[in-house]
Amino acid sequence: MRPVQYFSPEYLARCREMTPGQIAKFLEDFRVMGVSARPSKSRLISLKVPEDLLAAFKSKAGRAGTPYQTQIKRLMTDWLLTQGAGG
């Protein structure tokens, strides 16, 4: 049995105000993120980052209670969403 998702009246009102272009962008951004029924595979990458930048990033992520690699993935996802599919 699938769970039922409930939407607040405020959310539904906001959705009704969306233009067809905004709806299409939302759906494309959702597709780009790869959200699907099956989880996507992860790939190990190598990335050179200045040591002082990495240390500061790890420290700030730690203070926020977030593993730094999780925060990097969040930043990547946020960037995709704010730049749009063609950005």
Short account of what is shown:
This protein is mainly α and 87 residues long. Helix content is 57%, strand content 0%. The longest helix is centred in the C-terminal third of the chain and has 16 residues, at 68-83.
Written description of the protein model:
- The chain is mostly helical and about 90 residues long.
- It has 2 domains: about 5-35; about 45-85.
- About 55% of the residues lie in helices and about 0% in strands.
- The longest helix is centred in the C-terminal third of the chain and has 16 residues, at about 70-85.
- It starts with 8 loop residues before the first helix and ends with a helix.
- The model has no long low-confidence stretch (mean pLDDT about 85).
Task: Look at the structure and give the mean pLDDT.
Answer: 85
Rg, Cα atoms, Å: 18 Å
Q: Strand content of the residues, in percent?
A: under 5%
Provide the structure class: mainly alpha
Number of helices: 4
Total domains: 2
| Morphology | elongated
Helices and strands, in N-to-C order? HHHH
Tell me how many strands there are: 0
Give the % helix: 55-70%
Low-confidence stretches: none
Outline the biggest β-sheet.
none
